[in-house]
């Protein structure tokens, strides 16, 4: 049986994904599907037996998020959330926090690396920044102390536009992105 702290991490991840979706697309009271790789679920649930752990997680959050439908094809899982989950996110997520600020910043045509790094600095007391030399991303940024979150943000800038991808630390490591030049560690 998993401890509540493991479920808390999984719940936070799911809520962040649902919040991100609402920030980008707007709130709609509707059924929502999230597709999550098996390896990510194993990291978040801290378990090799993903099926049982996922069932336990769904039961643990049922009162808050409703009856979650789970299916999978191979190592790709689909979690289907009822309207109750969309309502919960809409009513309880922080409209002034880091994620809304990040999405607002990358949506702007005036978004530059310096402006984004300043935004990250406003939300965390510690910051790690790497300039990446790969073709996929320009920068890796994260909060070493996990405040306001633990994600690894991979930033890209092209033709006056910015984009980001975020990963849990274990997934970032598993994907094997090349290490970059550390620009800042405060």
Number of helices: 8
CATH topology of the largest domain: Arc Repressor Mutant, subunit A
Low-confidence stretches: none
Summarize the amount of helix as a percent range. 40-55%
Order of helices and strands: HEHHHEEHHHEEEEHE
Tell me the CATH architecture of the largest domain: Orthogonal Bundle
Spatial order of the strands in the main sheet?
7-6-5-4-8
CA gyration radius, whole angstroms: 17 Å
CATH top-level class of the largest domain = Mainly Alpha
Count of domains? 2
Gross morphology? globular
Taking the sheet with the most strands, its summary is:
5 strands, antiparallel
Secondary-structure-based class equals: alpha+beta
Strand element count: 8
Structure description:
This protein is an alpha+beta fold and 186 residues long. It has two domains: 89 residues, Arc Repressor Mutant, subunit A (Orthogonal Bundle), CATH 1.10.10; 88 residues, no CATH class. 45% of the residues lie in helices and 24% in strands. The strands form two sheets. The chain has a five-stranded antiparallel sheet. It has a three-stranded antiparallel sheet with strand order 1-3-2. Helix 1 crosses helix 5 and helix 6 packs antiparallel against helix 7. It starts with a helix and ends with a strand. The model has no long low-confidence stretch (mean pLDDT 92).
């Amino acid at each position: 049986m998993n401890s509540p702290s493991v479920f808390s991490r999984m719940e936070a991840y799911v809520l962040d994904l649902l919040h991100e979706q609402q920030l980008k697309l707007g709130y709609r009271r509707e059924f929502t599907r999230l597709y999550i790789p098996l390896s990510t679920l194993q990291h978040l649930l801290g378990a090799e037996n993903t099926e049982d752990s996922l069932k336990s997680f769904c039961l643990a959050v049922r009162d808050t998020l409703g009856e979650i439908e789970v299916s999978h094809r191979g190592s790709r899982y689909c979690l289907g959330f009822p309207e109750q989950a969309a309502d919960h996110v809409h009513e309880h997520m922080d409209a002034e926090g880091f994620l809304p600020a990040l999405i607002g910043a990358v949506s702007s045509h005036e978004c530059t690396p310096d402006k984004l790094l300043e935004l990250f600095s406003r939300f965390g007391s510690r910051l790690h920044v790497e300039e990446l030399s790969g073709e996929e991303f320009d920068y890796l940024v994260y909060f070493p102390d996990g405040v306001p979150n633990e994600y690894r943000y991979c930033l890209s800038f092209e033709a006056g536009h910015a984009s980001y991808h975020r990963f849990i630390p274990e997934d970032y490591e598993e994907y094997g992105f090349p290490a970059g030049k550390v620009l800042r560690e405060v």
